[in-house]
Amino acid sequence: MKFDHVAIEVNDFDSRVDALVNDVGLTLVRHGVRYSTGQRIAMLGDETGVKIELIESDAGRPTLAHVAFRADKAAAVDEAEAGLVEAGWSTVNPVHDLAAARARTTLVADRGGLHVQVIAYEPDSPDLGATGDG
Q: Could you tell me the residue ranges of all domains in the chain?
């Protein structure tokens, strides 16, 4: 697996997306909805393939939601979840498909509570093409 993105929960979602696009120069890759809560998300990226996922939240300050690692194929997501659970991690969100991202994913937590997403994209995923990473 390799690093894919960092997800941050933010309040004032629209203005934060706008600032990262207009002030910092990131590209809006796609909008989506968080699987577990229905909160809005925005995937942003740059020409190098680095991505930041913003998740709408009512938290007062930006908060780390998860760190994501990319698997090469969908079956590897299932294998990674099983291996991590066997190693003592817990499943936060079981393996499922993300239609907007054209991906398969799971969310797990280590013993200290750090959330880690494992994700595998379809070749036509917007999360790959718009950042020059596909």
A: 2-123
Domain at 2-123, CATH homologous superfamily:
2,3-Dihydroxybiphenyl 1,2-Dioxygenase, domain 1 (3.10.180.10)
Nearest to 68 by CA among 24, 21, 6, 1: 6
User: Among 111, 114, 73, 109, which residue's Cα sits nearest to residue 94?
Assistant: 109
Compute the chain's Rg from CA coordinates.
14
The strand pair at 27-33 and 51-56 is best described as: unpaired
Is 42 exposed, middle or buried (CB count within 10 Å of its CB: 0-12, 13-18, 19+)?
A: buried
- pTM of this structure: 0.86
Q: Cα dihedral angle (133, 125, 103, 48), rounded to 10 degrees?
A: 20
Residue 85: count of CB within 10 angstroms of its CB: 13
pLDDT values of the chain reduced to their tens digit, one per residue, 134 residues: 899 999 999 999 999 999 999 999 999 999 999 888 899 999 999 988 889 999 999 988 999 999 999 999 999 999 999 999 999 999 999 999 999 999 999 999 999 999 999 999 999 999 997 544 44
